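[scheduler] slot 2 assigned
[scheduler] job type: sequence-to-structure, two independent chains
[scheduler] chain ordering preserved from manifest
[runner] begin chain α
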Amino acid sequence: MHEILRHLPEGARVLDLGSSRGSFDASRYPVSLVRVDLEVPSDRQRDGFVCADAAALPFATASFDAIISNHSLEHFERLDKALEEMGRVVKPSGAMFIAVPDASTLADHLYRWLGRGGGHVNAFRSRDDLIALIEGHTRMRFVAGRTLRTSLAILNRKNQSGRIQRKLLLLGGGSETLLVLWSAIARFLDRRLSTRLSVYGWALYFGEIGEEVDRGTWSNVCVRCGAGYSSAWLENTGRARSGYTCPGCGAWNIFTRDW
């Protein structure tokens, strides 16, 4: 999404759709941010927040320079209408970032199993079909995409409060150390045997982005916060050795080169 955000002019209007707490650090960009969700955040997080249904957005036509939909389409009950609304409120010269899980992956199966569906009412299994669906309803042109990998950070005990689910006990109890090992093994098998153990979903870009999007798959995903980094960036910034410390949350991860 940052490929879009860093090219927006000061004061540009950005719609962060379906993320009550925000999909990115708004202080990094001089934009006018509006967050929309049906789930109302805490009082400290209500600045710029509008409680609304994505299928009935309370905004004028062509009122946003960019839309960020970060892992929200899978939750929309009226998906077709929500996509039409996104296409209506974004400017013809604007851009959209959309990230979704691939419903055929291990990661999504685990998420649905642990969360009794986890609120995922839409299952996307074909990237091409999804792109065609988005283009058809929004009239925005697809320009680039990348495959997303996972570290199964959703299982990390440090991201949870209260008692551990019994289901989670069957998966190592959410041990961060075990997740670090699993992530390394999954990436090794994916690389050597062409499995998809570490695959999570897709990041898709539509409209006017402002720069060439890196279409490569980033294999280094933090086991605690889930942030992904390209191996080239980790190496060029001196962070990568046999492992790296996540710049976002400080968790230690095993390093692998992208392929």
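[runner] end chain α
[runner] begin chain β
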Amino acid sequence: MKSVRILLAHAIDYAGLFPPAGLAMDAAVRNYEAYREGPDSWALGRFVAPLARAGETGLPSEMMSVVESGRETAGATVYLEKPTELVGARAKIRTGGLTADLFPSPEALADFLVQCAERKLAFKATAGLHHAVRGVYKLTYEPDSACATMHGFLNVLLAACLAWYDGSPAQVRATLEETHAAAFRFDDAGVAWHGHRLSNAQLAAAREEFIVSFGSCSFEEPLQELRKLELL
């Protein structure tokens, strides 16, 4: 559907070097190059690499998001984790990890999104957004992996859009807490949920002005979930 493609256009930064994927550099770069040439390239963002290994990728700087000690740079753009302390930078939030305690609560994530929207700070999300809709999932790809409640990337992106268009903290939180994919009704003109509706033009503006991207160690998994939900 057109609205899904607008919401996800170049939104998925590929972090194949990082857990739980943890690929070698050559394998991760090969994957990224294949994704760039593949049918889903419309959704592909930047290649995420540690600063110390950025020179190993062979990729131009405009295709990379470089990470160092909890701080990220994309070209000359700096991303920091506390919106109230940002001056001349953008914001980022860690939305998960390999243990349950690394996933922020809906309240904390809603507060971050509302603060960023109020300050007109563009943001990106890192880690934990492998799944389309909030639910209980395995933390790693191991058969005996522990499970935890994870945020959905559709929840986060739409909650951010709602915050951008002056949704209340309670409305933003409710969007983050939704666990039923059917609650998000996409069509070729926009998306509706919880009594809210945003047009394609509004989604495009929110992506252009506010929502930079989200990192995922798998580029294919988020798209596979959208296909299972018949959104692609």
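[runner] end chain β
[qc] chain β: Helices lie at 2-8, 25-37, 106-118, 153-164, 169-177, 200-209, 220-228.
[scheduler] slot 2 released
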